[in-house]
Design brief:
α3 runs antiparallel to α4. It is built from 6 helices and no strands. By secondary structure, the chain is mostly helical. It has a single domain, classed as Serine Threonine Protein Phosphatase 5, Tetratricopeptide repeat (Alpha Horseshoe). The chain is 70% helix and 0% strand. The longest helix has 18 residues.
């Protein structure tokens, strides 16, 4: 390597901070920062999760859907997608758990209550 790279030369502190927050949020350890574009960011995460689900990369999609739910606990679409993945995987226990959370956070959706009663 003939060129010496300077530390921090290509460093974008905002991008690095966002990446760090996203990595920690996947683990559910911290709440996301309150930002003006929060819904826009959640929309991007949801789109990425849908893309991964369609590719069959369920583990990665599950983590992103959980991040959406952490940010927007009443996101019916994220719950529905998780339920669909757990059904495809035959994971009734995880499906039951997410249905209970969905019922608590999306009380107006009777579909979740009906599905929970079907599998119990």
């Amino acid at each position: 390597m003939s060129e010496e790279r300077k530390v921090g030369e290509n460093f974008d502190s905002q991008a690095a901070g966002d990446i760090f927050d996203k990595l920690k949020n996947v683990e559910g350890k911290i709440k996301p920062k309150k930002e003006e574009g929060k819904l826009k960011n959640v929309s991007h995460v949801m789109n990425e999760a849908n893309y991964l689900k369609d590719l069959g990369e369920f583990d990665e999609a599950i983590e992103l859907y959980r991040q959406v739910i952490f940010t927007l606990p009443d996101s019916q679409k994220a719950y529905e997608a998780l339920i669909e993945i757990y059904q495809k995987q035959g994971d009734a226990e995880s499906e039951r758990d997410i249905l209970k959370k969905a019922i608590n956070n999306c009380s107006k959706n009777d579909h979740f209550k009906k599905r929970l009663s079907e599998i119990e």
